[in-house]
Amino acid sequence: MKLPRNVVVVLFDSLNRHMLGAYGGREFETPNLDRFARRAVRFDRHYTGSLPCMPARHDILCGALDFPWRCWGSVEIWEDAITYALRKAGVATQLISDHPHLFEAGGENYHIDFGAWAYERGHESDAWKLRPDASWAGAPSFGRGHMPYDNSRGHFRGEADFPGPRTMQAAADWLDAHAGAFERFLLFVDEFDPHEPFDTPEPWAGKYDPQWEGPHLVWPPYMQGAVAQGVLDARQARQLRSCYGAKLSMIDHWFGRVLDAMDRHALWDDTLFIVCTDHGHYLGEKDIWGKPAVPVFNPLGHIPLLVHHPEVAPGARSALSTGVDLFATIAEVFGVEVRQRTHGVSLLPVLRGQAAQVRDHVLTGVWGREVCLVTPRHKYVRAPAAANAPLSMLSNRWSTMPTIVMDRDLALPLPDGRAFLDRMPGSEVPVIHQPYAAGDAVPFWARARFGGNHVYDLDADPAEEANLAGTAVEEALAGKLRAVLAQMGVPQAQFARLGL
């Protein structure tokens, strides 16, 4: 079976697996994602790796998990995004994106090795406009205050002006202009929709909640217990979920233009096409909203992956997979390697039906929070044994969460006198190792209280309602997690923090 000549990746941000028709969702309409799924292989056990947004992109573009030793950050000086290797191999590479975090502090260097990149401005935290257009009245923000989006929103005069539609149209236009122009190409579409704000024009805005009156609720709170604590009432909760559905259906509609371009140029015959996401988004499941500091439950961590291979019949696969495996798959298609240690395994044997699985576990989580192990049957969420300490950060590029939407004191502090020179796990690369103790400032996601360990039988309990922590199942999984972390070479502080 020959390798595809080209690769197209469309990464939707915050794409909920359980809401897609291809995965049995019926709440919202996704006709074009379903259309793509009919010619693709559906991966049924695909999970997040490093979380949230930029760490997940690091998994895919650099192939290395980093959440066990680093939080949100840029490409390190010792590692290469896959685009650097592709450029040396003569592969044309194009990035088209409206994702603001790629162009903020903490997202540096992911775009620079693409042969060309295009940024469609104006989404969420993008510092595009200094003054709002008076025609935009705003919408309830649930404590976020004024956002850069509020300055940009009034400058979208119609549906085609919104960043998501512009990004999808630009991708379709690129395929029209470049089909047949290169021996091989990678087109990477990093689409921020359906991420909040869940803001759409009519007819989308009222599609799933036509009786709603007043400004649409496009900014979800980030918290657990929003309804129980009275932050949202049941009617507002329904409206928020409906606004997500509107954004999902709108971007699905525009995604159809990319599929049309693929059809026009018969690119399906020689192109590997990947539809994926960085993570899901809580919309009231367990009364959780947004992406707050809670364990990685399935709505966030069990994510969609659809892959079209020119020589593979559509179907479904039950093999475990995660973001770093997408890197490994693309690297195998183009026959390239990178210099840093990576953690992925190519999914081509699974796609071709040559292997039932290529890994026996997935590791996922957020730096400074629980560490989550997923096996073919179980999920094990290991929380800190006591205080959330000691924590360690290993990096030579000390950047973190975007500070344009928050004060710098909410981001990770700089190294101090406790820092020492260490080696990057699995390598001889010198790296600054900064220890943190209880009471030190840490980013948003690592600040909340912890609710102990969680163990779920994913086959018998996909809703994750029966916690098996404290049983013999946990004892076995704890041993497995300890071995996985040791093999990765995580800092010893992790073992102490997790009580392992």
CATH architecture of the largest domain: 3-Layer(aba) Sandwich
Task: List low-confidence stretches.
Answer: none
Number of domains: 2
How helical, in percent, are the residues? 10-25%
C-alpha end-to-end distance: 45 Å
Biggest sheet architecture: 8 strands, mixed
Instruction: Report the structural category.
Output: alpha/beta
| Strand percentage | 15-25%
Strand order of the largest sheet: 5-4-6-1-8-11-2-12
Q: What is the fold named in CATH at topology level of the largest domain?
A: Alkaline Phosphatase, subunit A
Walk me through what this model shows.
By secondary structure, this protein is α/β, with parallel strands linked by helices. It has eleven helices and 19 strands. The chain has helices at 31-37, 53-62, 82-88, 148-152, 163-178, 234-264, 298-301, 323-334, 348-351, 472-488, 492-498, and strands at 6-12, 41-47, 50-51, 92-97, 116-119, 185-191, 223-224, 271-277, 282-283, 288-290, 305-308, 315-322, 362-366, 371-374, 378-382, 391-395, 420-423, 430-436, 454-457. An eight-stranded mixed β-sheet has the order 5-4-6-1-8-11-2-12, sandwiched between helices. A five-stranded mixed β-sheet has the order 3-13-14-15-19. A hairpin with a 6-residue loop joins strand 17 and strand 18 (430-436). Helix 1 crosses helix 6, helix 2 runs parallel beside helix 8 (323-334) and helix 5 packs parallel to helix 6 (234-264). It starts with 5 loop residues before the first strand and ends with a helix. The mean pLDDT is 94.
